[in-house]
Amino acid sequence: DTGSAAAVPIDPRFDIAYVTPVTIGTPPQTLQLDFDTGSSDLWVFSSHTPTSQIRGQEIYTPDKSTTSKLLDGHTWSITYGDGSASRGNVYTDNFTVGGLAVASQAIQCAQQVSSSFTTEESIDGLLGLGFSTLNTVNPASQLTFFDNAKSKLGSPVFTADLKNKQAGTYDFGFIDKAKYTGEITYVPVNPDPGYWTFTSSGYAVGSGNFSGSPITGIADTGTSLVYLPTAIVTAYYRQVQGATNSRNYGGYVFPCSATLPPFTFGVGETKFTIPASYMSYAPVTDGSSTCFGGLQSSSGIGVNIWGDVALKAAFVVFNGANPPTLGWATK
Ligand SMILES: C[C@H](Cc1ccc(C(C)(C)C)cc1)[C@H](NN)c1nnnn1Cc1ccc2c(c1)OCO2
């Protein structure tokens, strides 16, 4: 079997996050989920979510599905690195992504979500594509959609083809040659503690020389920006007129009119250049002439993160074979 579904930016102006349609239950209920390779819980706004915490999101109502089953006594609770959080109970039900079906997928139903989820009206939940070891369901952790689907897939892979300010694609079970150019460079993945962790072979700022210092980090479709060591980030913003590290806005900002250099990162022998246009993330507040950078320091996070700003510049293969690897190709 295979599956293929669109990854649609939730805001046409800035690539804050991408949502992908999924169906849950019988008859199918369609929700738009944020596919997140940096976490491993599949949770949804639901009939168990207080209405005061719902603002326009679609919800999953297990009682309306003839195939839903309560996973009795199981609960979950997750806090994300940006401080967002949610918790609730668990059902199993039929689940499909782009024509790929999994029977009795664990569906974590929110009974509580933080305000950041309530205010993000276009996101009806998250679909974790990290390793199942990160799943928070107690007393028995549950498998991700990808782990459940793997045995049905021709090849145990999924690919991310995220795009700048337009819809991209998540494919499951196959690698679409039409989506990339040249060869795919595969690099080792460390699945411990559960992220798609790999080592980049170095970086360059603009047309500067390439620094071959290895950078270990995670490939994270659920994070908007790129978070790297402070030394790299300061080297980048030294090339941006008027850039400052703003405590007020929590990161590097610059005049939206500034000329930004592109940013190049290496994977094995292959080099990926993030165009300057991707490196300006968004105005700090609507209409402001101060812009927030797409590259920020990872010093407060504890892990380097190759988020959407970087992933948009490549075609990425998440290879769930044993051992797992990451494939990167230009496009
Ligand atoms: C933050 C997302 C998870 C999420 C996605 C979307 C949302 C909203 C819908 C409300 C927009 C909230 C949360 C990320 N996913 N792997 C994540 N989950 N756990 N760690 N990370 C990576 C990290 C960690 C720390 C950081 C960060 C990033 O940005 C700023 O500081």
Helix and strand succession?
EEEEEEEHEHEEEEEEEHEEEEEEEEHEE
Strand order of the largest sheet: 2-3-8-4-7-6
Distance between the termini: 25 Å
Number of strands: 25
User: Count of helical segments?
Assistant: 4
How would you characterize this protein structure?
With 331 residues, this protein is mainly beta. It contains four helices and 25 strands. A hairpin with a 5-residue loop joins β5 and β6 (85-97). The two termini are 25 Å apart. Bound molecules: the ligand C[C@H](Cc1ccc(C(C)(C)C)cc1)[C@H](NN)c1nnnn1Cc1ccc2c(c1)OCO2. The ligand C[C@H](Cc1ccc(C(C)(C)C)cc1)[C@H](NN)c1nnnn1Cc1ccc2c(c1)OCO2 binds at residues 17, 34, 36, 38-39, 80-82, 84, 116-117, 120, 123, 220, 222-223, 301, 305.
Provide a compact summary of the structure.
The chain has helices at 115-119, 145-149, 230-237, 308-311; strands spanning 3-9, 18-24, 29-36, 42-44, 69-79, 85-97, 100-113, 125-128, 157-163, 166-172, 181-188, 197-200, 202-205, 215-219, 226-228, 244-246, 251-255, 263-267, 270-274, 280-283, 290-293, 295-297, 304-306, 315-319, 325-330. The chain has 331 residues and is mainly beta. β9 and β10 form a beta hairpin.
